[in-house]
Write a structure and sequence with these properties.
This protein is of the alpha/beta class. It has three domains: 58 residues, no CATH class; 209 residues, Aldolase class I (TIM Barrel); 85 residues, no CATH class. It has twelve helices and 16 strands. Strand 15 and strand 16 form a beta hairpin. Helix 5 packs parallel to helix 8 and helix 10 crosses helix 11. The longest helix has 13 residues. The N and C termini lie far apart (58 Å). The chain binds iron/sulfur cluster. The site of iron/sulfur cluster has 10 residues, from loops. Iron/sulfur cluster binds next to loops.
Amino acid sequence: MAKVRYIKNLADVPQLSPQEVSQLSRVTRKFPFGANSYYLGLINWADENDPIRRMVIPTLEELGDEEWGAVDPSREAADTVAPGLQHKYPDTALFLLSDLCGGRCRYCFRKRLFMPHREHEILKDYRPAVAYIKAHPEVNNVLLTGGDPLRLATAGLREIISALREIDHVQIIRIGTKMPVFNPFRIIDDPALPEMIKEFSTPEKRLYFMLHFCHPNEITREAIAAVDILITSGAILCNQNPLLRGVNDNPEVLAELYKKLSFIGVSPYYTFQTRPTIGNKPYAVPLVRAYQVFQEAKKNLSGTAKRATFVMSHALGKIEVVGLDHFHIYMRYHRAPDPADTGEFIVARRNDGGYWLDDFVIDTVSFAGINDTVVGSTAGAVTDSRIKVSAHYR
Ligand code: SF4
């Protein structure tokens, strides 16, 4: 018997009044609602600002600033080589396997997948995508994402992973999932899943699960049991979370999240600046403030708890924020589509109201590799390949 019931209508959430349901239906017509009985059960309904409520129950603020954000803020369309298959960094390919999740995070940067009249972007047939990977020996890791790949039955997921495992140059397969958070019973009640992990997460080539805990209240007894099944089956677990206003934009809360994750064997991996996505302004924190919260949170943590990197998943690449002073914010290309750009250092003028790289004026772009030392201002001393950021945003 299923322990968890998926809920698509706000009217089926008994804690909301008919007035609230009617008001919020203006929001859900544009950005649909989704949750389930387990996750809703974690909400303290007496607290208007409960963090889990904030992550899953709509707010009228989502309609507040129509000018803010884009439908595809990281411009994934440009990296899409076939429907449902993205290839941005040479060694990494991404399959969009599902447009379903255990619920719908209000702050989702891929909410376009769920919106009415959307274009269907998910992989309908995995075989051409696998053939593409086979033909691209530079791809050594494949990220299965969506939506949530664990909304697929294990048999379907197994077929895809099995086909990828037949390709010698694919070393790492990552599964991006919020299921241990949204619905841990998807893992607890499915003995086929740990069997599949045991089969394909080998000593030489591991399966990674990229989890999505955003708040310590999500780390429940059931979530820990699901995590334990993944670990004892041989998977490697990491966590990636956006920094969200009213959820984890408090150093104590974020530190608690990192600490608890490290206790249960989930390595904090990326903390993301919330992408400027349509409807997501209520969840976004300005970049300077977000970086300060991130740094403050890490102050009193052990090394195992503070392994996260704070990044912007920008169309230009993964840009890590590494420092701040009164006048500047310092960033570095953590990943770039052209590997020659990785490590590029960016000095931008501090702007406490800015949310995204595009809101900052770049002063200097520099690079210091072993055989390539270039330091200069955007006025012209840097080489063409190193000037992409400034060229875009000056
Ligand atoms: S689980 Fe991920 S893809 Fe699904 S709604 Fe949440 S953020 Fe979006």
